[in-house]
Automatic annotation (TrEMBL):
ANK repeat ranges per the UniProt record: 45-77, 78-110, 112-144, 157-189, 194-226
Official protein name in the record: RING-type E3 ubiquitin transferase
GO MF annotation list: ubiquitin protein ligase activity; zinc ion binding
Organism: Trapa natans (Water chestnut)
Keywords: ANK repeat, Metal-binding, Repeat, Transferase, Ubl conjugation pathway, Zinc, Zinc-finger
Lineage, highest ranks first: Eukaryota, Viridiplantae, Streptophyta, Embryophyta, Tracheophyta
Amino acid sequence: MGQELSCLSSHEHNLFSAVQHGDLETVRTLLDGDSALPHQTTPYDRQSLLHIAAANGQIEILSMLLDQPLHPDLLNRNKQTPLMLAAMRGKIFCVKKLLDAGANVLKFDSLNGRTCLHYAAYHGHSECLQIILSSAKSSHVAASWGYARFVNIRDGRGATPLHLAARQRRPDCVHILLDNGALVCATTGGHGYPGSTPLHLAARGGSLDCVRELLAWGADRLQRDNSGRIPYSVAMKHMHNVCAALLNPSSSEPLVWPSPLKFISELNQDAKFLLERALMEANKEREKRILKGTTISVSPFHSDAGAESDISEADDDDNNLCSICFEQVCTMEVQTCGHQLCAHCTLSLCCHNKPNPNTDSVTPPVCPFCRGPISRLTVAKFGSSDDLDHDVNEISSSKIRRTRRSRNLSEGSSSFRGLSSAVGSLGKLGGRGSSGRIAVDDDDDGDLIDKP
């Protein structure tokens, strides 16, 4: 960009340089003196003032330029909009400002046929990704184009944003996209290897956290690409042994997020957070069992000692102990009947069996106490709002060691028999030594398979 600025006249050079470095007063002075200057572009890449302000995160100058008669979807030489450059660079406030000004999220560039959503996912800017998705959900895009179609939009080489996030080792972006309806088993066109799923690409990149997320959302370990390879073969070829161990078809199946259940899609953020954390804890315990006795080692999951609250030492918390597993504090409540249980046991009710994607309707689970159908879940409340915040932030991640004790299970005691196998397996997975903290790969850009 600096070489391009040197090709401009002195007046234009001063303006573009002031925009790039955030000199608001100079920009305002120069624009007031010449009404044609706001429409100037750099000689080669045809970057407008909006492009330069957005790419450099100059939100005040961007706001001032948008107050001028400038269209937010100006195109540079590669048909990229200012929104694409802001998403590429992770300039959150500029992304939000451009969306508020009416920037079009369905613009495709001429390099790889990508949108702003592809760029945010590719470069791992999860907050920008979430803002773009939220804007699309509440805009004309959802009504006229279809929100699910937008989330799974393909670039010029047949890759969805989820493919790009998985290949570039972006677990946060993978999670956000899956949570918004990205197809976990979609195959690519010409990106990477034809017919690759996000799980193939995550195996190729060696991102353990991306593999975890994809498996937890039902990715098929046996799906083959156009060369006939399963993700396990791809991981082995690139010597990602830990990923390969989890992808081995002979290893146990992970628990899968029960997205087909209607009340799961209606969970509030706190309840969803608790169940997601329980799911990741359970699957990490599965990983330990798979890797146990092998030469493969994985770095220990970090735990925050401060998260071990005083609850495990308090006598008056016995009343809040889950009556099914006797190990975890009750953090979930069935809203229709008011019965409470821990997140791990709730999870065993919802996803003991892997959901069938070909099934249109899924029978909702029933409350183990009263046998009534579970149609809505919420976070269990124990008195004040401070207690609720404490439950969400600490109880769900703390390990509570207690001696099993007899309790009166007269209310619906026979209904626990149907849960015996599920809770038995999940009890081993859930409440013994897990911190509940989801590890995230600290990856650099690494080796990119193409340039954005």
